[in-house]
Automatic annotation (TrEMBL), chain A:
Coiled coil: none annotated. Keywords: Membrane, Signal, Transmembrane, Transmembrane helix. This is GPI transamidase component PIG-T. Residues 594-614 are annotated as: Disordered.
From TrEMBL, chain B:
It is found in: Endoplasmic reticulum membrane. This is Phosphatidylinositol-glycan biosynthesis class S protein. It is a multi-pass membrane protein. Residues 1-39 are annotated as: Disordered. Its main location: endoplasmic reticulum. It comes from Apiosordaria backusii. The chain crosses the membrane at residues 46-63, 499-519. Pathway: Glycolipid biosynthesis; glycosylphosphatidylinositol-anchor biosynthesis. Residues 1-11 have a biased composition (Polar residues). The lineage of its organism: Eukaryota, Fungi, Dikarya, Ascomycota, Pezizomycotina. PANTHER family: GPI TRANSAMIDASE COMPONENT PIG-S (PTHR21072:SF13). Belongs to the PIGS family. One of its GO terms (cellular component) is GPI-anchor transamidase complex. InterPro entries: PtdIno-glycan_biosynth_class_S (IPR019540). Keywords: Endoplasmic reticulum, Glycoprotein, GPI-anchor biosynthesis, Membrane, Transmembrane, Transmembrane helix.
Amino acid sequence: MRQLFSFVLLSLVSLSSFFVSASAAAADYHEQLVLRPLPLSALLASFNFRSNTSLSEFEAHNFRFFPRSLGQILQHAGTQELHLRFSLGRWDSESWGARPWDGAREGGTGVELWAWLQAATDEEADHKWLTLTNALSGLFCASLNFIDGTRTTRPVMSFQPEGDHLNTTAVDTHLLYGVLPHEVVCTENLTPFLKLLPCKGKAGIATLLDGHKLFDASWQSMAIDVRPICPAGGECVLQIELTIDMVLDIDRSKRPRDNPIPRPPPGHELPCNTSKPYHSHDTCFPTDHQANQDWTLSQIFGRTMKGTCPLTDPTVPPVCLQVPNSRSVYHSDGVLEKKNLDRVSRCFEIKPDVNFEIVLPTPDDESAVLVKPETPLLYAERSFTGHGQERGGVQTILRNPSPDTEVEFIYMESLPWFMRVYLHTMSARLQGQSAKDDALIKEVYYRPAVDRARGTQLEVRMRVPPASTVFLTYDFEKSILRYTEYPPDANRGFDVAAAVITILSPAAYNLRTTSLLCSLPTPDFSMPYNVIIFTSTAIALAFGGMFNILVRRFVAADEGPEVGLAVLKKRIKERVGALVEKIKKDKGQKIPYEARNKSGKANDSGVETEVIKE
Amino acid sequence: MSAQPLSSNDNDAPITPITPKEGAPASTRKLPPPEKPSDVRRRSHVILSFWLIVLILGLPIWWKTTTIYRADLPLQEMLEWADGKACRPVFPLRISIQATSLQDQEAQNLLRLTQHALDDLNDFAGHHLRLQLGDEKLDSADNGSALIIRLTPGEGTTATLDPYEPILDITYPPNTIPSPTASSSPLATYIASQLRTTFAEEQATISYLLSTNSMPSEHRPLGLSPETTESLAKRTTRSLKYAPTYHLTFSLFTSGPLPSSWNIEGAIDEYMKPVLEVLSPIHNFTIDTQVQLYASPGVQNQILNKEDLSSFINAAEWPLSPSIGGAPTINFIVFIGNQTIANPSQDSPTSQSWLIPQWGTVYLLSLPDDTTHVAAATLKQPLLTFTSHLLSLTGTPESGSLPLRLSTLARIRSADLLLRASSTLGSLARLAMALPSISIPSSVADGVTKTMSHLRLACDNLGGTEGLAHARIAEAEAERAFFEKSMVGQLYFPDEHKIAVYLPLLGPVAVPLVMGLINEIKAWRKRRRERAEKGAEKKEQ
């Protein structure tokens, strides 16, 4: 499968480069949708839109296929190459196999951004990065502006530029990488994405993109890649490639939109595995994988495809389907089906203004329903170990399924500063061995975190021998945050970005682990007031006692003033009596207000004298 | 207390035991032994030292740590600027008269008479036309005059404005030269009225600007008719806020897939660049262009009414985001479509474009359906429309020759900036006075000082290019000071919050301190009284 993808990719690249060199104006844009049914009633849909603009036009601010809004940002922030990813869900490589595009067009959960910026100094690069993230944040309605110093790293080994950077030196080009694992990708990110396309969502394969379906997918990744391409002998072009990959659950997609709640099917409709010995009229073992492979385009995407984008390169077929050639597929009129020589894919050439629809009926031959997924080069799983609120550990399980090839890769983590990594505890060991194996780790690049200023950057070049599993572990300490640093949902935990694995040999391949949720010691948030009140009470007690000892006079019990309940009673009685007498007096004769007041005062002071000084 | 050694050799008279007051119940209790004077004194010292610590150490520290920094602002001066008391905007315009055919004496005489006529006509002191005799070799740029009047003898009395130079050509019949003794002359009156017409719009605009700001009434010109005010108000709201740089965005929108390219660069170079170059002393321009397909307008009607025009721009879908460089964006949109605009007056031809105040222009261009490329020649009419709309969006006056309009624009803009900066200063002063808990960082004070010095310079050089530059700086500084982030960014602490923090500590601490002080004062007064009584008793004895 990977070869197939790379074949398609290669042919596209060669085609586009051919057209660029032949006639700059003819085909600067093309789009293609590749549909690939996957096991477990899943369907991978890969949308790819690519357009070129010559660098001279770009610098003259004349935008035709290249979106102006993005072009302005790139020019303003001095960006040479940009990669932006919005991802959701998890690619199930155990059942779905290798990733589309060799993992080059996907990111970890949330938002990922890396870019090569042109700047003379690191400070200037940081400044431009800030401009870039803020502007992109506005353009894509994402919280990219929260990519600050603590979430930005400068990878050393992991990322390589995809474009041709001719007239720049390594000194003034800075690679910055930022990641926001907590960001939830949703429809508001898709709308600006569609606006970047020359045909918007109005014609061509982009008409199939619908927020309801895209974000209902089991896994989806939106990618934007901008890179300069300089073909030999030709003029340099700036290429923007927009990619959307999604794995749709066919069952779920086929549910009617007005009645999306899943209900158990009645017993006689259950697909049962009749080969099981215990299968009977009241026992059913559900069939897996092969079921539900009949679908139509409009069932899956909720609508049919509306013609083709007239700007697109006519030599690139807009839709390709990867099922074995023996399987029958029906399509609407005005569509030309072409089976490819590799026997596992076919493409459709569509006339403009034709509503395109394909129907895959329930297959007759159970064995030739799917193209068998290709085994990926490496499986990776990452999880937390340990317990308690003080320390923890991270364990990554890396499995090489190949029986004879060793895999060499770079494992990169960018961890938040509040995870304090103990680098000395980092070790790699083979499964089945208890001792750590130093030969597995070839090179380590480590940049320690600075509290509240930058995160940990850890890049490890390592290898996994054939048919073996390696455990990479390290411990860390959780720090306690300041009161205002906790988010409103502090008890949910803190997202830790996915680890990026870049495979160097035997072939270029990328994969990312899932992101993790780290729970930090979370205080009770009424704490500051409790602290204020507790300490104040303690201070007040200590102060009051000390002060009284210093200023009071101590006498024998029978020498002091009389205290006790009887004294209090007597005093209250006296006061009440005085008050009653006064009221009687008031009623009897009208005393002017001042005089009454004076008499009251005199009375008061008379009582006061009894309060004997302690 | 008992640790105190008994000081038997104390020569002070022993303090009499506390005698119960009148009305107190006859006590059977023992009285405490008399207190030693040293104990009493020590108690006073203890209380005094606690209070001294609170007052000398505690209060200043509390004050220092909780006070909000407020830099000193010259509030009175700022308000004076806002009220227009600090600067009286005067635009002295020098006008040269070139009269080579006249004798020096005659020319002087004509000048004097014309100046008289002008002064009689003028009712607005802020806008002053001053005549001078010009040398022919100097042109307007060298001697700083706004206009040159070239007097040439001819058949009749005519006046024409040169379209490319700030020159007013006036011809006169030779017999109209006033005699040296004449107190009035038809030629002088004619010149004066011509000048007045030429500068009427500028005068009206400036007096409108002054009247909309809070200028004191004695500087406020009178005599603006309601219609003039209305048209001026319309024009002022239409024009963009002054900025040194404007960003022009040319967009081609089409509702279908065609056309997908246009030769906008060539068209701009040919039809718009000349005007942009003329405007360059006042504004800089940056340009970008884009093509957007499948852009459906917000209104689907074939004939657009006046109400439809405001919703024609589909703001939700059309990517018309402003430029991110900080310069305001002016949008020029060519929409490919055969919609027409319904004209209220049926006799005039249907128009193709409309201007959106402070935003830009839309031009409807109808093309054959199969056009794939829009040539530069097709874009001529749209771009000429855009050019004229650009002038009105930048606030250029409508009448007069282009050089005169531009020099007027510079003067109007400097007056506008001056007034704007002054009113910002006033707002800042009022804000500082209205919110006593707002912090004023020193950068704001710096900004205010800079603004005022540049305002002063601008006020002194009004009418020149220097004045515009100073007014521009002043306005920028004033805005910066007003929108200082740290002023508004401070946290809000309600009073309940403060009580919740202070009371648990200060309450329990303050009660013993205050009670101790009160008791001590009472005891001290009592001791004094007793001592006085004793003294009296001694005297009696």
